[in-house]
Write a structure and sequence with these properties.
alpha/beta; Rossmann fold; 6 helices
Length: 184
């Protein structure tokens, strides 16, 4: 079993990874992307996962663990593993300004799209990914609302533990949800 955490950028995937780690689940990270003003508790990423399309077998390192996979790479998951996938959903109207602020804070450039064009592109991508998820026999997906997770962390932690079928420390998981860290 491999646990995947995914969603659009700035949708709460780092929070979900923090919750899983606090709950006692091993997480596959490499610490290369350090915590910063955009994610003061860290990103919980594994750089190798970016090679998934070229090296699908790399996912084997995540057996028995949780790993974050960006939504555009989900279709590269090899079908010969069993996955439990937490897909974080956040209103796109909150993602766009949060992503823009993060790009600005990092001093980098994002795509040259207007906010409305970016909103439309993200909505189309999310719909495509969710449709794809519904057609996959080798994975079970739990859609988690980011705002609900922040508002009701105890219930959300219980829902995650039930979905994964693991005896996670849901109290410790719930303590990771800090609404003051919500950007935009």
């Amino acid at each position: 079993m491999i646990t995947i955490v995914s969603g659009l950028p700035r949708s709460g995937t780092s929070l979900a990874m923090q919750m899983l780690a606090a709950g006692g689940m091993p997480v596959l990270t490499d610490g290369l992307r350090a915590a910063d003003v955009n994610n003061p508790r860290g990103y919980y990423e594994w750089e190798q996962i970016k090679r998934l399309p070229q090296e699908p077998g790399c996912i084997a390192e995540a057996e028995g663990k949780a790993v974050k996979v960006i939504s555009s790479l989900l279709s590269s998951l090899p079908a010969d593993f069993e996955y439990r996938l937490l897909f974080l959903l956040r209103p796109i109207e909150g993602i766009v300004p949060s992503q823009a602020a993060m790009i600005s804070n990092l001093g980098t450039q994002g795509p040259a799209l207007s906010a409305s064009a970016m909103t439309a592109a993200l909505a189309a991508h999310r719909n495509q990914v969710l449709s794809w998820l519904d057609q996959q026999a080798h994975l079970s997906a739990l859609r988690m609302d980011y705002l609900e997770l922040l508002a009701n962390p105890v219930a959300s932690a219980l829902k995650i533990a039930r979905f994964l079928g693991l005896p996670l420390d849901t109290e410790a998981m719930a303590h990771q949800a800090d609404p003051s860290l919500r950007h935009h």
